[in-house]
Amino acid sequence: MDKHLILGVHICDRLKRVADVQALFSEYGKCIKTRVGLHEPESPLEPTGLVLLEMWGDEARCFELARKLNEIDGVDVQQMVFGH
User: Fold this and answer.
1) Which of 46, 54, 69, 76 could make an S-S bridge to 34, C-beta 3.0–4.6 Å?
2) Helix or strand or coil: residue 36?
């Protein structure tokens, strides 16, 4: 990939959506270089979640993951793309 791609994945009602999101993370695992989960430290059962993904490899496949995540009700994906 000639770009540096970061996906921000915001998950509303994460306890309901976690299985669908995790299934896609597993399916596209070879495209995920770094995964960072952000949550409120005092509330492990916080209903929303934010995951940052540093992507690498086949660019089309990376954007395909973003599209599929966005198709899940209650999941919003934002992209940061940096050129080299």
Assistant:
1) 54
2) strand
